From TrEMBL:
HAMAP family: Asn_tRNA_synth (MF_00534). The keyword Aminoacyl-tRNA synthetase applies. It is an enzyme of class 6 (ligase). The gene is asnS. This is Asparagine--tRNA ligase.
């Protein structure tokens, strides 16, 4: 009976067939221990010389790392095994003998591992991270689909920037200029006016010449947008969203979290209660008390965000940033127009911003004024139409998938959060 390693517990006492690869092996003379993987997990197969044919035992002796094999054996429970089960092997069929594998248990440099990323992702740690990534995506979709959101796919090629920045990848679009998208938000605002609650999920691109552990050139964003939604309602939804994601990972990825040695206590606190909230004014005061040379009107950098999150054991909302340092479409606070009705959500443990969100400007006259201040031309005329024809208060946010994964997994660098990272000096493989 064919089985996967992930489901092996259903077949205790039965003979199964596993189709996979040899991850590692060791021998004690008359017994060989095969570390098998099949993509769903890892398990040890025990080959006893007296219980298999001489040909099978000889084959096991010459198997190389990552050779593809079909293995038959009886499943037995074993508390000492990481998965709780082992396989008493009765037969092994060689599919393909692998050449000498370039990645060994010894230490390798980061550049070497990145050059061999296509092979590195087979390792237990990298496989666990990619499995957690998949579960995080599943949780995000579950929450949004279950709360009345409709997925809408914005274009990847756009005629202009979303936020008026210069960090754009330029390309020719026949006789016109085009850019790889930085965000689908403006298009989601249009979709929200048609469908009420919407979200996009797709790749975005930032041509930032940054080498920090938090930056990728190509990354994935989830961007919900909601008609008739206030700033306060927006933050409440973000909190419930993040709690749902973390709760789902804790329920479905215990084995993977153990594989990457993630301390789950900080994650458990995330789902226990409300997230703390402070204003930008309060954040500036806290930073100044901590010795940072920062003034009202300055934006936060990574050191500022890291120190702020050390004061709290859960994700932290910082709201009402100065209007001057935020995007043109963000709604000013009617009671204090120099700040916006928006917030950043900072992950704890020093991981920094994972969500940026705000209420959007819905007044056509105010948006027209912003257009003039930012020198936005005809490329944005369709965006102004959203205020001309049935404008309503609306809000939304964007959450970076890879930064969220880095925080939940407790990783030092976002390069491990995506199968094939695109970095400042890396476009291979």
């Amino acid at each position: 009976m064919k089985a996967t390693i992930a489901a092996i517990g259903q077949f205790v006492g039965q003979e199964v067939l596993i189709e996979g690869w040899l991850w590692n092996k060791r021998s004690s003379g008359k017994i060989q221990f095969l570390q098998l993987r099949d993509g769903t997990g890892f398990i040890q197969g025990v080959v006893v010389k007296s219980e298999v044919s001489p040909e099978v035992f000889a084959l096991c002796d010459r198997l190389s790392q990552e050779s593809s094999i079909r293995v038959k054996g009886v499943v037995r429970a074993d508390e000492r095994a990481p998965s709780g089960f082992e396989l008493t092997v009765s037969d092994v069929e060689l599919v393909a003998l692998a050449e000498e594998y370039p990645i060994s248990p010894k230490e390798h440099g980061v550049d070497f591992l990145m050059d061999h990323r296509h092979l590195w992702i087979r390792s237990p740690r990298q496989r666990a991270i990619l499995k957690i990534r998949a579960e995080i995506i599943k949780a995000m979709r579950q929450f949004l689909d279950g709360n009345g959101f409709v997925q809408v796919d914005p274009p990847i090629l756009t005629p202009s920037s979303c936020e008026g920045t210069t960090t754009l990848f330029h390309t020719k679009y026949f006789d016109d200029d085009a850019y790889l998208t930085q965000s689908g938000q403006l298009y989601m605002e249009a979709a929200a006016m048609a469908l009420g609650r919407v979200y996009s999920f797709g790749p975005t691109f930032r041509a930032e010449k940054s080498k920090t552990r938090r930056h990728l050139i190509e990354f994935w964003m989830i961007e919900p947008e909601m008609a008739y939604c206030t700033h306060e309602e927006n933050m409440a939804l973000q909190e419930a969203f993040v709690q749902h994601i973390v709760r789902h990972v804790l329920e479905t990825c215990q084995m993977e979290l153990k594989t990457i040695d993630r301390d789950t206590k900080p994650l458990e606190r995330v789902v226990e209660g409300p997230f703390p909230r402070i204003t930008y004014d309060e954040a500036i005061r806290l930073l100044q008390e901590m010795g940072h040379e920062i003034q009202w009107g300055d934006d936060f950098g990574a050191p500022h965000e890291t120190d702020l999150t050390k004061r709290f054991d859960r994700p932290l909302f910082i709201e009402k940033f100065p209007t001057a340092i935020k995007a043109f479409y963000m709604q000013p606070d009617p009671e204090r127009p120099e700040v916006i009705l928006g917030a950043d959500l900072l992950a704890p443990e020093g991981y920094g911003e994972i969500i940026g969100g705000s209420q959007r400007i819905h007044d056509p006259e105010l948006l027209k004024k912003r257009f003039e201040e930012h020198h936005l031309g005809e490329a944005y005329d369709w965006y102004m139409d959203l205020r001309r024809y049935g404008t309503v208060p609306h809000s939304g946010f964007g959450i970076g998938l890879e930064r969220t994964i880095a925080w939940i997994c407790g990783l030092d660098h976002v390069r491990e959060t995506i199968p094939f990272p695109r970095l400042l000096n890396r476009l291979y493989p």
